[in-house]
Amino acid sequence: MTSCNQFEAEFAKWLSVPHAFSFWKARVAFYAALKALGVGPGDEVILTGYTCVMNVNPIKYLGAKPVYIDIEPDTFNINPDLIEAQITPKTKVLLAQHTYGYPCRMDAIAAIAKKHNLTLIEDCCLCLGSTYNGKTAGTFGKAAYFSFQWNKPFTTGLGGMLLTSDQQLADKIRQLKQAGLSRPSFKEVALLAAELAVYRLLIYPRTTALAQQAFRFLTKKGAVVGSSSSAEFDPVMAPDFFKAMSSVQISAGCRQIRKVQKNIAHRKQMTALYDELLAQKGFPARVYDKSLMDPVLVRYPLRIKEKDKALELAASAGVELGSWFECTLHPIETPLEKYDYTQGMCPQAEMASQQTVNLPLHPRVSENTVRRTVDFISQFTPIA
Ligand SMILES: Cc1ncc(COP(=O)(O)O)c(C=O)c1O
Question: Could you tell me the fold of the domain covering 260-377?
């Protein structure tokens, strides 16, 4: 391990992977992986059509083309049966995003990557500790990246980590970091530290909706370091995009990684409670291959009628209801055409984005929160 900080060392050790590289955000980690792999103009990257636009930006920044694959309705993950039809001589990378924490069908996906000589990368931004056939997500591909943004399985405010077991790729990433990584400004680090302090003191499930509204307002005014600026809805890379993780994030990350097993156990316990209470209210059981998948959910996805109304009422009821993904390339503001997405490309993903809300599972969610959330959401009609 030739890591340069303690968080990288501890994160790599947790997943028994030899190389870890920290960045300001996960999108920067993904960019570093693509760049180190030599992805450039004319190349194609295959990914799910149910993702966050910030995940597509790195592909576009390098002049490559995103090719979207529809999802499997039950797990919201890329449908392996649809991938091969989209592979061309230009396809370089196959990205497996483990959505909401459900692991992708990695046996099928790894076999496709091998057959067509594609580099397999895992997007583990919504997934921490989930396993497929006994193997942890993040250890299947040539590289994997994780996010520590506010909504993610654990948070350092903002932050990303790239993992790889491939020595050659690790050497290239190290070179890239040495050659071109900028440092976050003093103002950015100070604001992030203040935001983390506020978060620890004030953000609980009942206050989240209000806090998010305030946070979005302040982000637009430039008064806080937000997850994404309005400039990031255009696939043009900002000069300071390739940025390092700050010391504030590293310390927060070290604290969080030491609590990761507790975090995972809590998520599983609260997921089981949601399963039980939602079943009592007539919601259909979650469907996934239990013989192969052991998911650790980041949020509990649920399909309902009247998603918009539920989100509107949740805010005033003090219920923390998540809206992602609001469209196939979240959030709703994304100009889809700039990202090579045309309506109708991924019908299952489009339907999922119209129907799906998500319920909180983070460490501050208590049994009482789960009960209140289920009481609230059960006034809406489930969709099977
Ligand atoms: C699935 C997925 N991948 C990647 C990212 C990018 O993560 P970050 O905000 O740390 O850059 C996101 C963004 O929220 C995401 O939802």
Answer: Aspartate Aminotransferase, domain 1 (3.90.1150)
Residue 254 has pLDDT above 50, yes or no: yes
Ligand 1: residue of 23, 24, 27, 329 to mutate (most ligand atoms within 8 A of CB) is: 27
Domain ranges of the chain: 6-180, 186-242, 260-377
**pLDDT tens digits along 135-145:** 999 999 999 99
- Residue nearest to ligand 1 atom 12, measured at CA: 52
For the question of whether the overall pTM of this predicted structure is more than 0.90, the answer is: yes
Q: Does domain 6-180 have CATH number 3.40.640.10?
A: yes
Q: Encode burial over 214-246: b for 16+ CB neighbours within 10 A, e otherwise.
A: ebeeebeeeebbbbbeeebbebebeeebbbbbb
CB of 323 shorter than 6 A to ligand 1? no
Residue 54 CA to ligand 1 center (angstroms) comes to 6
Same fold, 6-180 and 260-377: no
